[in-house]
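Tokenised fold entry reproduced for everyone:
>
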Amino acid sequence: MLEKVKERLASLSVPISNEPNSTDVFLLSFAVNKTTDHIKNQTNLDAIPQGLEHVAIDMAVGEFLFTKKSMGLLDINTLNFDTVEKRVKDGDTDVEFAVDAKSTPEARFNAFITYLQHNEVDFVKYRVLTW
């Protein structure tokens, strides 16, 4: 899963250091392990179900980005979180943006982190009762 998380970060143009003793390597491993443990604890399963793999990847990316931002190790102004169209109307060209155009880059970043971290409603289908 670690490689898929790195690929997801690369697709978002988030720079990460691959140096063996770098903070990024530790934080990334920690985020993946924390996410994996969280999903396994919430579902009472020994492994992450295939249907939750993409959710797990996004959650690990969200955890990694949130931690780096909290530690002051991430300059969000260098990341590109432009507004995205939420709705486009063909007649009379009506475009509505998903994020307020006046919002700060930090507000857009925080909204993206919230999206990545998902909520636990995704786990409901996979929960197993234990005694």
